[in-house]
Protein: Probable hydrogen peroxide-inducible genes activator
Amino acid sequence: MGVLDGGRIELRHLRAFEAVARLQSFTHAAAELAITQPALSRTIQQLEDALGVTLLDRSSRHVEMTRAGRTFFGHVERVLAELERGVAALRREASIRLGFSWLLPDPWAQDTVARFEHDTKTTVSLVRTDDALSAVQQGKVDVAVVRGQVTATALRVVHLFDETRVAVCSVHSRLAERSELDWAEVPRWPLVVNVASGTTGPWSWPPGAGPKTVVETSNFDEWIESVAADRGIGVIPDVAIRRNIHPGVRFITLRGAPQSAVALAFLPRARNAQLRRFVAAAVASAAAEST
Structure:
């Protein structure tokens, strides 16, 4: 922050002095600051050398401030308090834009957002977008929840967990009375595919083994309405069962279906400390839920 008598006074010097003066103990202050006591003593000595005065009287049983120390302490308290207010104000204004194309995984998404906002005081703005990957690449969101195989090499992709797939059909479909469906049976039916963000399509089977008829849609709303209209069946992660997505569809357990990957995608060169903290929190939440 400034240069006095050839010595540079940094924020760490002020924090060290404030802690020792407030706690009247190098031992307790070192523990609070998570540094060693010798390192703390060196920091205080650097500050005193830069100021050219003795701030702390170490001769008594408890560390006490000198007259100069008491004068300086008042200023340091105000500086640190003002800095904290500035940081808090920026955090209140800051936000992480989290993109998603349809239902967020539960309870992972809700737990992650709530814990991150509580710990960082940074708001997570939820942004619904038909193409989450493009939204990240275009800077419309900071990070996106993506499902299935991601081939965008310009993005960094962090795997979180896998979701179980289920089949979904119209209440008017001949399949509506079925309780189970084998994965190998799915290609026998017209398949409704969300080409923008769907996790299941002709690519989900070996060449020549996929469905003969494919009904393409460009977003989740078109996809679910097409299934409800009995234009074909769909395959979707089982989070949809818990969210009552449409009264006109039925869910059917899929035997032998491969799971669907869930990941976070973001620009690899993003210089955003809060984004890195969000990704870390998301990974930690996913790990906690898997245990």
